[in-house]
Model the fold of this input.
Amino acid sequence: MLTPSTLNDTRLVSDLYIEHRPWLFRWLTAKLGCDEQACDVIQNTFVRVLSKPEQLSSLHEPRAYLTTIAKGLVMDYWRRQKLEKAYLDALSQVPEATQSSEEHRAEILETLYQIHYMLEKLSEPVRLAFLWSQLEGLKYQEIATRLGVTERTVKNYMAKAMFECLKLLNQAT
Amino acid sequence: MTVNHPLDKPINDDVLQEAANWFAVVQDIESSQESQAFKSWLEADESHYHAWQQVTQLSASIQKLQQSPEKPAIGAVLKSQNKPIIGSLLSLLVCVSSVMAWYIWSPSKSSALFTNKQYQTAVGETRSIVLADGSALWLNTNSKVSVRYNADLRQIEILSGEVLVETAADSQYPARSLVVDSQHGRLTALGTRFTVQQSDSHTIVNVFDGAISLKPKQSEAAVVVPSGYQGRFDHQDAEMTYQSADPARQAWANGILLANEKPLCDFVNELNRYRNQPIICADDVDHFKLTGAYPLSDMRQILSAVEASIPVHFWQVNHSRWRVDKRR
Done:
């Protein structure tokens, strides 16, 4: 629904785009070493900008703002690359005959990326507890034994892990 | 993995913390009070529902990976962290603990609670059975189950029809899980009282006390259904439906067919499960609704009671068929 304020925002964003795209493109190409990736990131940067109209009207430092967003996206991109490589390395241990289909592979990779991002910030025992429960299907008793803690502690770990994941999910948009 | 935001704003941190706490509880639910408390929380506010949806979507997406042949690779990547020294110390701890754990937890093989039996009811018959561990099992009309208790598991397999189960705590140590298997998947009992009804396309569960965990045959994702709710699953998917567990679904164990504003033809379909000669319901009487408790032991009385409350009549067309039509 186009209200007068949304029209204004769109105009502001397109002004931003026209003015800042050139240097952003050069900067990103240098960082990523690839035109196509640079284009993708620029697209996503401006999509992000559009999704936060309240920032636009009070924007004093457009360069800094755009750089921050773009940097975040570049980090995402690198993180994905690194993860995919680690995954493929680990996968080389798995016999090829039993592996999933192509599309299933893409789904796995996507889930992997999301989860890894969420779990990265957790401490080791919290992450392990969560994965042992969800990925391996272990019960709390078993996890408690493995970690040398009480079941109550395992429960706290589970809650902590899930809370961190939920926070990220709700902050993403 | 996309997340729905039907609320235009993100959910606030307090609610997320509560949802996370419930997630931790529900993985390993201990009592029916806990399950009641969870239900109360879920219903207290719309944001609670939405937070819980996020929890289930997230845990399902990970649990789905349990069956991938790539699981070891996935696990390796997810568990890895940037502090290799701590990592190897931890894995050493794990090795030692696992060995010790095996000594502590190896099950006693001299348990007396073994069963391997089949039970069956004819059309119109309901039957109640007490199992070796004190659990109670009711079979509804035209149902068949196989009960297998062994050293590791208490298993009830529903071959056809509908059962009501009230679980008892296992007197064996360590306690065995109680599971109900339908053709569509496995249900693990985390509490006490629930019904399972298997049809060709899916299995429906009504939970009255405690909680159960549903796992379809072709999926690794498990869904928990707490008391007061229904769940359904087919070979591939399980879901907790946000419908209340229907008290009518356990009334049959007491020999009663319950109706609460039930359309006549639905009532007749239900009644037909208890009859060898089905009643055909005419279209022009479907709008009538029935409310009441009807005694399954006396079919004639049920039909009279219905005829006394709405202007219809039941009549026998031929030796194998009946009809219900508008009374003229």
